[in-house]
Design brief:
This protein has four helices and three strands. By secondary structure, it is of the alpha/beta class. It has a single domain, classed as 3-Layer(aba) Sandwich (Rossmann fold). The termini are close together.
Length: 106
Amino acid sequence: MYRTGRYADPQSAPRPGLILLDLNLPGTDGREVLRKIKQDETLKLIPVVIFTTSSNPKDIEACYRQGVNSYILKPMDFSRLKHSIQVLIDYWFDTTILPSDVLEPC
């Protein structure tokens, strides 16, 4: 996302149009990743969707306060998980207009 090293060329390594983020990442905290994204001028316009198993009201409120665009509970049942992912894809890629669709590349 920061376009460094071999990812410096925006043509071969464009920034994502949407970030799907789990709060419970191995080795790091998704809350901290969200904070870094939303505080970075070059990244903060990228929509972030939290997709996690945490239904903790404190997590939900904290994420919205930090600028998350949507918070989705990850179902444990495979068929419900598949449905949730399809709804997410349909909404974010077929219905909404994302910043990358209207802004010039950074």
